[in-house]
Amino acid sequence: MTMAEVREKARALGISPSRKRKLELVREIQTREGNFPCFGTATDYCDQMYCCFREDCLGKNS
Predict the structure, then answer these.
(1) How far apart are CA 13 and CA 11, in angstroms?
(2) How confident is the model at residue 48, as a pLDDT?
(3) Which ranges of 1-62 does DSSP label H, i.e. alpha helix?
(4) Which of 14, 45, 47, 50 is nearest to 29 (CA)?
(5) How far is 19 from 1, CA to CA, in rounded Å?
(6) Helix, strand, coil % (nearest 5) of the chain?
(7) What band does 61 get if pLDDT is binned at 50, 70 and 90?
(8) pLDDT, tens digit, for every residue of 8-54?
(9) DSSP 3-state of 55
């Protein structure tokens, strides 16, 4: 997901994206959506099946 898409998603959830790094913003979105704020920490597996960042996260670590 691009940074522009992440910012758009943040705004839709009522999160101000200004001056936040992608990692910080994604984790805030994860929390707001009821997931663990764990973006970028998975190694081979992620049990957060409904997280919209799941594929991006696993792709970063493989």
Answers:
(1) 5
(2) 87
(3) 3-12, 22-32, 54-60
(4) 14
(5) 18
(6) 45, 0, 55
(7) low
(8) 999 999 999 999 999 999 999 999 999 999 998 988 888 888 899 98
(9) helix
Q: Tokens representing 14? A: 């009522």
pTM of the model as a whole = 0.86
Pair of tokens at residue 17: 């994206």
**Can you tell me the distance from the alpha carbon of 13 to that of 10, in angstroms, rounded to the nearest whole number?**
5
List the structure tokens of 6. 């992440």
> What does the alpha-carbon distance between residue 17 and residue 27 come to, in Å, rounded to a whole number?
12
Confidence of residue 62 (pLDDT cuts 50, 70, 90): very low
Query: ∠ at Cα 55 (45, 40), nearest 5°?
Result: 65
